[in-house]
């Protein structure tokens, strides 16, 4: 099972909340991702904190994706990918 989503936010806290809300939706649709949700949030938080607040003008933008493979009750594979960048704020 896999997922992918994009986010855009004016601050680290707003970006983290947006990522959390998107992961809520992922887990609701694909409950198996409850198993790797914490790892996705931790990876995103580490990169958001690395870049820090965007300041006046830019936004934080990025993407989160992941997949897990499962045989019976055991996970047999997993991946999480996160990218974060400062990007020009969209206007009007």
Summarize the structure.
The chain is of the alpha+beta class. It contains 2 helices and 3 strands.
Order of helices and strands: EHHEE
Could you say which overall geometry the principal axes of the C-alpha atoms support? elongated
Radius of gyration: 14 Å
Tally the beta strands: 3
Tally of helical segments? 2
Which key features would you list for this structure?
single chain, alpha+beta, 2 helices, elongated, 92 residues
Explain the overall architecture.
There is one protein chain. With 92 residues, the chain is α+β, with helices and mostly antiparallel strands. The chain contains two helices and three strands. The protein has helices spanning 12-29, 37-51; strands at 2-9, 58-71, 74-88. It has a three-stranded antiparallel sheet with strand order 1-2-3, with helices on one face. α1 runs antiparallel to α2. The longest helix has 18 residues, at 12-29. The protein is elongated. The termini are far apart. The mean pLDDT is 94.
How is the topology of this model organized?
Layout: E1 2-9, H1 12-29, H2 37-51, E2 58-71, E3 74-88
Antiparallel strand pairs: 1-2, 2-3
Helix pairs in contact: 1-2
